[in-house]
Design brief:
Layout lengths: L15 H13 L2 H20 L10 H9 L15 H15 L4 H12 L12 H12 L10 H10 L5 H15 L9 H11 L4 H8 L5
């Protein structure tokens, strides 16, 4: 039985590399962001089921796990460079996976999904792993009940609580840019968040989360 076919909404891959991935994320990211990363994978899986996509046939669930769980590594100190956080995170994930024997084509697919996860209108057209990664991340801000039931949401949030995720995420991105302005090229999400944080009481992400189904 594949994970996607399991009735356990909390099921995660159990390979040694998957376990190490979770350990790296929870050791290096704040709990709010680490929990967000895992929830994004769980929601992406529900989105795949809603769309009738089958793991091992329509998409590689292993790569979806790596892309979702590692998508915010660029906000950790171990992957904080001079590029926008999406690219720093994609580079760190690629280095980690390649160093653990993942094929170059699979590494490229994960890199693309992470690098494009804030690029609406692009990620959705770059294959199922890329589209589902972005979709799962967006579902963690708000979600259609037809995709994520109240029961599934309750179980997921009880295990991986939100902990004011939207605020923590924005603060991490803004703090990086203030320390290293090269991380916010014009017209990117980091640049927009820095501008919104300076001009408004809440950024667009925080407002969307606050008014959405889950709250902060």
């Amino acid at each position: 039985m594949t994970i996607q076919e399991s009735d356990d909404v909390l099921a995660l891959p159990t390979s040694a590399l998957a376990t190490e991935t979770l350990s790296i994320v929870f050791s290096n990211e704040p709990p709010a962001i680490a929990n967000h990363s895992v929830r994004s994978y769980l929601f992406a899986r529900l989105l795949a089921r809603h769309r009738g996509l089958r793991p091992g046939h329509d998409f590689d669930d292993r790569l979806l796990f790596f892309a979702c769980v590692l998508h915010d590594m660029g906000l950790s100190e171990v992957a904080n460079g001079k590029q926008r956080f999406e690219i720093d995170g994609a580079d760190a994930a690629a280095e980690f996976l390649a160093g653990n024997g993942v094929s170059s084509s699979d590494v490229d697919e994960v890199w693309q999904a992470i690098a494009l996860h804030t690029s609406g209108g692009v990620a959705e057209r770059r294959g199922p792993v890329c589209a589902l990664t972005r979709g799962g991340i967006l579902l963690d801000i708000d979600a259609d009940p037809k995709v994520v039931s109240d029961d599934d949401a309750r179980v997921i949030h009880a295990t991986y609580p939100r902990l004011a995720m939207a605020r923590e995420l924005v603060e991490a991105i803004v703090a990086q840019v203030r320390a290293e302005p090269s991380k916010a090229p014009a017209y990117t999400l980091p640049a927009a968040l820095v501008r919104e944080r300076a001009e408004l009481s809440l950024t667009g992400i925080e407002r969307a989360a606050q008014s959405g189904r889950w709250g902060q």
